[in-house]
Amino acid sequence: MNAGLAQAVVGPPIIGVLALQGAFSAHEDALRGLGVDTRQVRTPLDLAHVHALVMPGGESTTMSLLLDTSRLFEPLQQRLADGMPVFGTCAGMILLAANVLDGRADQRSFGVIDIDVRRNGYGRQVDSFETDITVVGLTAPFHAVFIRAPKVETTGTAVEVLATHDGVPVLARQGPVMVASFHPEITPDARLHELFLQHNGFKTEPRSSSTEGG
Ligand code: GLN
Questions:
Q1: Does residue 97 line the site of ligand 1, with CB under 6 A?
Q2: pTM (2 decimals)?
Q3: pLDDT tens digit string along 79-91?
Q4: How far does residue 89's CA lie from ligand 1's centre (Å)?
């Protein structure tokens, strides 16, 4: 029904940030710092104008509900099926996963990356933590902030694990779909946004060498 909207995307690349709830504005800042245009996505019409999407952290159960009430779920599902690049962080990762453990019964996910993830798998808010991780494709470690983070329990063979913490995948990719169980937008280091954009063929502006660290 909404498939026609997907065809309408023309013009210079615009990276959407799902802005129903959660940590979306910091993602916009990170993307703009890389020289790309952004647009907050709240409606099917917003979605029709973007070439890729970032799905932020927040609360996946609330976002699932708001995706339904805003009538975004089906058009977004269609865009994802058409191969639109998407980067899901924390709650965004949950929404993209094939299988959600400890989810709410009515919570929906798009199933576009073959992972099983457990909501709050690292514990509650008090168990939030920070750590440096080594990321495939980056020369210096990335400082990762985990907040009520989902824990990846299984990855399918098509999934590329880009970083682990204590042997558990925390950054993964399957084709145009990239997911992180932490919050890369919280730190002033846009290398993961850059990795996402470059992997999907979007041009970025050279960033300041201060974020590379080596
Ligand atoms: N625990 C949250 C959820 O289930 C995710 C937390 C986050 O995005 N920081 O959606």
A1: no
A2: 0.92
A3: 999 999 999 999 9
A4: 9
